[in-house]
Request: fold
Amino acid sequence: MSAVTASLCSTLMFVVFVSAGQKNITADTGDNVILPCRLTNKITAVEWSRADLGDEIVFLYQDGQFVPQKQHPSFKNRVALRDRQMKDGDVSLILKDVTTADSGTYKCRVKIAETNSWKYITINLSVSPVIKTIPVKSGQNVILPCRAPKNNQRVKWSRADLKTANVFLYQDGHFVPDHQHPSFKNRVLLRDGQMKDGDVSLILKNVTINDAGTYECRVFMEERRTWKLLVIIKLRVDPPGQKNITAESGQDVTLTCRVTNKITAVEWSRADLGDENVFLYQDGQFVPQKQHPSFKNRVALRDRQMKDGDASLILKDVTTADSGTYKCRVKIAETNSWKYITINLSVSPVITSIPVKSGQNITLPCRAPNNNKHVMWSRADLKTKNVFLYRDGHFVPDNQHPSFKNRVDLRDRQMKDGDVSLILKNVTFNDAGTYVCHVLMEETRSVKSISIIKLIVDPGRSGGQGGSVGLIIGLIVAAVVVSCCCYFCCRRKTSEDSQQLPSQI
Reply:
């Protein structure tokens, strides 16, 4: 083999990057996270990057010191090596106080002293948005808290039931009134118009019952040119004298109701159910005739004897569809009169993280109240487009995002037992994101979020790792081919020179 060939082969092998596969990490907003990266070789440099940051990086450490020049501003004073000595090849990164804006695929590249070559691993970080329930009384002012990455120029507050109208939009230092819902005119503003330290919290003045709902805080990520969901806030507006209970989906809940008098009848109702009730018990027995179907076999008195005036109701396996204001009406034997109390039940949606590899099919689970006819699956970053809409027994293709065409369907189109789970076929890395399952509540004519799913897609061998393996194989083959070509060229040249020597003498 010639010296040129050997040199070329050496150069080709120098630029080979070896991937150790991809890891998946999930975290909640506000957590400190360790992105693990460890090798057994002596390391001279480490670079942490994220694809969407362009030329800027997360963290660079070389020649024994941190190099800040190309660090993205959002990571300033928030990242550090777990061990600056990098003992035992540990170059894991600590990322502090994470937000959903930190979600993405991180690459850890290290330079090996012995071989002067680079190795890397990739880590997918998925950060769940903050979900808070904030109670407030009518007439009060309330602050809806939200913290964004620093230097952000656009923030949008929205509420699911307002459709295309927003609560508040602020960009480039100015409030933008276009598309603001009329009910919020002159009633909302940022707590800090300068958005110092990423504070994009919203002040809502003179709250009314109609302000109750699910608010979402989003910021525009310039690097990705997309809106990022940071915070979900359930605003509960309480009338005077009302009890409040919070629960998570799947729990059993006791709605407390107790009076000191002897009770002859008790009726539990919810305003949005119309003429139907939650539970009726009179003359020593349960009366099922007007019970709403969604409560069938799910409710019972804590004490059927109602001793000591206890008319509390047990509600089993709650979902967000059970959220609302319940009224407990009891009939007093001595006076033959009725008394009542109201209870506000707030049920948080299920939040599930599901990992899947590229190329696989996946089921996104969701269970809605029985007899539901409308279901919609959405993903926050798709804006007005949806993933899947099913209404009155039919799939509705209008406004479906093109990337989901012929790839999604309900697991059971009959939606038996409230099963509105979605099948997503042939998953790709672009399918990663936060999916929300909504159902239309006929009684209130409002859309209710039932389930939130974080889909984490591992590229597997068809993604980043496979690409690295392909690159390695391609470079090795190229090196071998070049080597062989140079070798045969040299042989041929030597043969020609030996045949020409006699004539030259």
